[in-house]
Amino acid sequence: MEAFKQRYPTVSLVIKTGHTDLIVEDIRSGALGLAVASLPLPNEGREFFIQPLYREELVAVVGPGHALAKRRLVQPEEVKKYPLIVFPRGSSTRQVLDRSFQELNITPRIQLELENDEAVEKAIPTGIAVSFLPQRRACRDKVPFFRIAHYQIFREVALVSLRSQRLPAHLTYFTDLCREHARSTFGPDCQGS
Questions:
Q1: What are phi and psi of 42, to 5 degrees?
Q2: How far apart (Å, rounded) are the C-alpha atoms in residues 63 and 69?
Q3: Distance between terminal CA atoms of the chain?
Q4: Which among 125, 127, 143, 160 could disulfide-bond with 35, CB atoms 3.0 to 4.6 Å apart, if both were Cys?
Q5: Distance between CA 74 and CA 83 in Å, rounded?
Q6: Residues 128, 90, 97, 44, Cα dihedral to 10°
Q7: DSSP labels for 134-177?
Q8: How many CB atoms within 10 Å of residue 17?
């Protein structure tokens, strides 16, 4: 943000968080010029210009007192035993997780639906539920995590804008900063719990 402010000191940059489907509608309506969004997009169409930023692994996270907290690898059958904290239906991350649950033959016992990674992280220490967070975040915040044996879950994040509208110079510069940040951030990963 510092580099952006130095180059464009008079431009007010508005940052909005929310479900991908709502953010995409704001792009369609012109309320937003650019979004950083998880894929897949709801109602993805040719009207959007999608610039991939990074791909991040989602790992299963639990509280420090959870029975699986000291494990690094867990069989899918073991995950079935626990309630899940997931993202709301319709969110991009939920779509990724639902597809993974189907491939793993896991019928989720959903205990709670939460809006974002921060809320999930705050809810995990209080119970026996399992949830999913980016591996980098789990490492950074020292949240116990494990991987599901023989299976990896990934979430893709991209810059999204309308194909029909050329980005103004300040947003083009912002996309360059985002790509640079993504390249420098997504280096070596930690190993797990």
A1: -70, 140
A2: 7
A3: 32
A4: 160
A5: 15
A6: -160
A7: EHHHHHHTT--EEEETT--EEEEEEEEEETTSPPPHHHHHHHHH
A8: 10
Burial class (CB in 10 A: 0-12, 13-18, 19+), 85: buried
Identify the pLDDT of residue 193: 46
Q: Which domains does the chain have, with CATH numbers?
A: 2-53+157-185 (3.40.190.10), 55-154 (3.40.190.290)
User: How much is the pLDDT for 43?
Assistant: 67
Amino acid at 68: L
What confidence tens digit (pLDDT) does each residue in 78-125 have?
999 999 999 998 888 999 999 999 999 989 899 999 988 999 999 998
- 10 residue type, one letter: T
pLDDT at 23: 86
Tokens, residue 39: 């894929």
> The dihedral of CA 19, 118, 122, 69: what is its sign?
positive
Cα–Cα dist 128/57, whole Å: 22
Q: What is the rounded distance in angstroms from the CA atom of residue 6 to the CA atom of residue 33?
A: 21
Whether 33 contacts 13, CB under 8 Å: no
d(CA 153, CA 58): 5
